[in-house]
Amino acid sequence: VPGGGAALRLCSTRVAQGGINKPVIDRIIRVDHAGEYGANRIYAGQMAVLGRSSVGPVIQQMWNQEKVHLKKFNELMVAYRVRPTVLLPFWNVAGFVLGAGSALLGKKGAMACTVAVEESISEHYNNQIRTLIEEDPEKYKELLQVIKQFRDEEQEHHDIGLEHDAEATPAYSVLKTAIQLGCKAAIFLSERI
């Protein structure tokens, strides 16, 4: 396998020799993979509804970053030998429905969804960063760099949502709260199942 396959094998060997806290790393990678998978489905749903609108390029740009995030977590799942959550088929449908449903409310609704999800994910990534630093920041240096970079990009998506009038969505606070409760439930379940 050219390039990428060899790198994954080397990373996998190095990880196995590193004496990692396997349950913690499994939980982090499993839930982050599920989250990035769900984010991809949300943006797919938004693009299905708003792809040809004026906000389509903005959504596409954020989706492109999410695709990179998912690709990286796919690689980390192999490298760390982590099984995915069994809930992926559910997140496939739920993510798309959330994305399309929020987009049916218009540009502001889609952006309100983005703000709610990305705020939840940024907070979640911050919790993981604290956990890994408490464990051993040197041992988990590479994973910390990935999570910090992705957290920063999720925060950018959050800010883009605010710049595109997310808060002007009717019943914004109710919508945001409902989506964030769903995110917390998804995180809880995906870490464990």
TrEMBL record:
<keyword id="KW-0503">Monooxygenase</keyword>
<dbReference type="InterPro" id="IPR009078">
    <property type="entry name" value="Ferritin-like_SF"/>
</dbReference>
<keyword id="KW-0479">Metal-binding</keyword>
<protein>
    <submittedName>
        <fullName>COQ7 protein</fullName>
    </submittedName>
</protein>
<keyword id="KW-0560">Oxidoreductase</keyword>
<keyword id="KW-0472">Membrane</keyword>
<dbReference type="GO" id="GO:0010468">
    <property type="term" value="P:regulation of gene expression"/>
</dbReference>
<dbReference type="GO" id="GO:0008682">
    <property type="term" value="F:3-demethoxyubiquinol 3-hydroxylase activity"/>
</dbReference>
<dbReference type="Pfam" id="PF03232">
    <property type="entry name" value="COQ7"/>
</dbReference>
<dbReference type="InterPro" id="IPR011566">
    <property type="entry name" value="Ubq_synth_Coq7"/>
</dbReference>
<dbReference type="GO" id="GO:2000377">
    <property type="term" value="P:regulation of reactive oxygen species metabolic process"/>
</dbReference>
<dbReference type="GO" id="GO:0046872">
    <property type="term" value="F:metal ion binding"/>
</dbReference>
<dbReference type="GO" id="GO:0005743">
    <property type="term" value="C:mitochondrial inner membrane"/>
</dbReference>
<dbReference type="GO" id="GO:0006744">
    <property type="term" value="P:ubiquinone biosynthetic process"/>
</dbReference>
<dbReference type="GO" id="GO:0008340">
    <property type="term" value="P:determination of adult lifespan"/>
</dbReference>
<dbReference type="GO" id="GO:0005634">
    <property type="term" value="C:nucleus"/>
</dbReference>
<keyword id="KW-0831">Ubiquinone biosynthesis</keyword>
<keyword id="KW-0408">Iron</keyword>
<comment type="pathway">
    <text>Cofactor biosynthesis; ubiquinone biosynthesis.</text>
</comment>
